[in-house]
Amino acid sequence: MALNASASISPSSSSYPQLGSDDANCGLNLRYELHRCRNWKCCASLGVVAQRALTPVDDEKPTVPLVDSSLDSDASHHNHSQAFHKDVNLLPKPLTAIDVSSYPRDGSKVRVAYQGLPGAYSEDAALKAYPKCETVPCDEFEAAFKAVELWLVDKAVLPIENSVGGSIHRNYDLLLRHRLHIVGEVQLQVNHCLLGLPGVRKEELKAVVSHPQALAQCENILNDLGVVKIGSPDTAAAAKTVALECVRDTGAIASFRAAKIYGLDVLAERIQDDDVNITRFLILARDPIIPGTDRPYKTSIVFSLEEGPGVLFKALAVFSMRNINLSKIESRPLKQRPLRVVDDSNEGSAKYFDYLFYIDFEASMADPRSQYALGHLQEFARFLRVLGCYPMDTVV
């Protein structure tokens, strides 16, 4: 009898499901064979065969035993089903479109990196983009890039240009060096404040500490005061230095929020020479966002061109032909081969730079015009990369 029972579940038996058959039928047939063999009083011999057939590898061991020999067939099937459904209910549920759309836009679940110390203008920009975010200071721009890449933070907010000081070239170069995506922009109105220790008047100051850009943007008032200008890595660091050293005749140029953080008095507000002083920041993330057409979008690209007369004109014309406005053009030397000799003669001295061109244009990648323009641009470009497509910040 034992030999017959073993033969009934052998791979050669027509009653046993073959490889490639339906998994559900396989489980039903196997359960039926086990039930039939128990009725034949041959569980001892069958148990050895079934154990070999049903023993999974370590990574695939189920949490619930497939066969419980201590219970009869019906009870085993009933308890197995209960445990199986209980485990499934404990699994995390997939997100729905409603869950994604309800994600808080105030940044309450977002960690945002910025360059500088608490109170820096970059932190103000991060809080403008995500009012309830957790800000993470970084000692330099590249550290903020790496913090996003290493999943230490969700996003980074970094300055890219100032209406008075111009472009921040270091961040243009880092955009190409790192594989992050631009997912937004922030325009921040700069309010340079003259800060000092409590009780100090601005006329008492003999020196002022701040970032070189801030010192240059407030040159008129500093010249009127006749103070010595001292450079600092950033404006917030200047405020912190004044607070820690407690030198009454030394002030700082920093933000209004920096004064609150470091316990300094605001001796004067809006001391910049140009009233319209706006810094534009980029929001960087590991993944791009899905572009839309529901509001104004901006797309940032970088490319290099083949050699030839009028090639740059042709490259820019692909946008003009489709009525796409260019809001920013920046060129940077291609550092892999910065100089090229015009002729093959060793006597030739005329040289010029190979350039990368960074362009921001006001159109979404979801707009067919953008797709046609970039397709046309590829005819002239040696290299082309889309840095990001993101909603424009229209509120300063």
From TrEMBL:
Its EC number is 4.2.1.91. It catalyses: L-arogenate + H(+) = L-phenylalanine + CO2 + H2O. Residues 300-391 form the ACT domain. It is found in: Plastid, Chloroplast stroma. Keywords: Amino-acid biosynthesis, Aromatic amino acid biosynthesis, Chloroplast, Lyase, Phenylalanine biosynthesis, Plastid, Transit peptide. Pathway: Amino-acid biosynthesis; L-phenylalanine biosynthesis; L-phenylalanine from L-arogenate: step 1/1. InterPro entries: ACT-like_dom_sf, ACT_dom, Preph_deHydtase, Preph_deHydtase_CS. Residues 111-286 form the Prephenate dehydratase domain. It holds the Pfam family PDT. Converts the prephenate produced from the shikimate-chorismate pathway into phenylalanine. This is Arogenate dehydratase.
